[in-house]
Design a protein that fits this description.
The complex is a heterodimer. Chain A is mainly α. Chain A contains two helices and no strands. Chain B has 21 helices and no strands. Classes of the chains: A mainly alpha, B mainly alpha.
Chain lengths: 46, 367
């Protein structure tokens, strides 16, 4: 059974902020890395 | 003679309701073709699990054995991820990596649902419920199990059912948040070739980058990318085919049946289950909204506008979400082909959902 505790919504907002920030940072690193390897290893145009 | 009706007398109304739920899952799988690979084994397993004194779920019985062999240690979801990784073509994403931003934005529903669920449930259960928003079965199972959630059955049913209901859930949310003009924005696709070396390096680099920052996600991202590497290396055709077909199908059968171990009346028939189903729906809706609104935000700063619908494809329900966005684009403008963009965003959602799963574990897994 559960206990309704509305204040927990506020308590976990920081997790929301940190979680989304970390996801965007990791995705940002992946994007930059992918752009770099695309540039280095792109098929040579004849 | 007594032995014939003795067991029948043990049937309770709760058994009846659960058997009916199992039958409904089977109906949805066969008649409506909603995620039949999972819903049918889950439905049948639910029936097996709710027959009084069922030997299928008895201590040491086959389902418990399978559960301990593959769910309790998260093995089955990880093996399934090898198959899923082998099925994914990252080509559209590699030719336009910026699409990954939408995959990131569409995980917002997970964290929003964490806040919502925390009002009703303990931390580990709230986090496990939130991960329904990953729209990814293996991630949901792995996280819920690692966090030792008391609601694994309800979470799994919610996760797979809502994945199957994506064609019903997403379009109204997308239409509510966009104008017709926005939905008609064209995004011509410029094919850029991606080298084989890039395709091989990508899964290796992703594994390293994600694991370095979120080590809790190493298993999930590692197995997913291993499957993709088998596909892309070009020298393991038979392994790739085995992973995509035999391995994925075999594990899916075991997974579906074994989830039923959690689908007994005492665990499932509670008010909590209804709340979990409601929160799961919120997760999917807010995921969709997050992706769409992020695209609209970017459009404020960009000269070349993005069709905001592609943001909705950032949830991990692959490839259904990508196809839905493409279809909605065609409905508005028969000359607007969004498929390559939406599929690119869709596969990025797969990566982002695994990252989100790792972050959730990082927050709440007891060290």
């Amino acid at each position: 059974m559960f206990n309704f505790n509305p204040m927990n919504f506020v308590k976990y907002l920081s997790h929301m902020g940190i979680g989304m920030l970390v996801i965007f940072i990791i995705i940002g690193v992946i994007i930059l890395t992918t752009l770099l390897i695309n540039k280095i290893f792109s098929p040579k145009k004849k | 003679m007594e032995i014939i009706y003795e067991n029948l007398l043990r049937f309770t109304w709760q058994n009846g309701v659960m058997i009916l739920i199992g039958a409904v899952l089977i109906f949805l799988a066969i008649k409506k073709e909603m995620e039949p690979t999972l819903l049918l084994p889950m439905g049948f397993g639910t029936i097996l699990a709710n027959i009084p004194l069922s030997s299928a779920v008895a201590e040491g019985g086959p389902i418990e054995t399978l559960f301990n062999a593959g769910i309790a240690n998260e093995l089955f979801p990880l093996l399934l991820f090898i198959g899923i990784g082998a099925m994914i073509d990252f080509g559209p994403l590699l030719s336009n990596p910026k699409l990954m931003l939408f995959g990131a934005a569409a995980q917002f529903g997970i964290f929003f649902t964490l806040c919502m669920a925390s009002m009703f449930f303990a931390e580990n259960d709230a986090a496990s419920i939130a991960i329904i928003g990953a729209a990814d079965g293996p991630t949901s199972i792995a996280v819920a199990n690692a966090l030792n959630s008391n609601y694994q059955g309800a979470i799994m049913v919610a996760a797979y059912s809502y994945m199957a209901l994506v064609p019903i859930i997403q379009p109204p949310v997308i239409k509510l948040l966009t104008t017709k003009k926005e939905r008609m924005i064209r995004m011509p696709y410029e094919q850029k070739s991606v080298s084989k070396l890039t395709r091989i390096l990508f899964p290796i680099i992703i594994t390293f980058v994600v694991s370095a920052v979120v080590p809790e996600a190493t298993s999930l991202i590692g197995f997913l990318m291993f499957g993709n590497l088998i596909r892309e290396c070009g020298v393991l055709e038979s392994l790739s085919e085995t992973a995509q077909k035999v391995l994925a199908n075999l594990v899916t059968i075991f997974l579906g049946l074994t989830v039923a171990f959690q689908m007994t009346a005492d665990k499932f028939l509670k008010v909590d289950t209804l709340i979990i189903l409601g929160l799961g729906l919120i997760a999917f809706v807010v995921d969709t909204a997050g992706g769409v609104l992020f695209a609209k935000l970017l459009n404020l700063f960009m000269k070349k506008k993005i069709n905001p619908m592609i943001g909705a494809a950032g949830i991990s329900a692959f490839p259904m979400s990508g196809r839905i966005v493409h279809k909605m684009g065609l409905q508005e403008d028969p000359q607007n082909f969004l498929l390559m963009h939406s599929i690119g965003v869709n596969v990025s959602g797969q990566i982002a959902s695994v990252i989100a799963g790792g972050i959730i574990l990082g927050f709440f897994l007891a060290k």
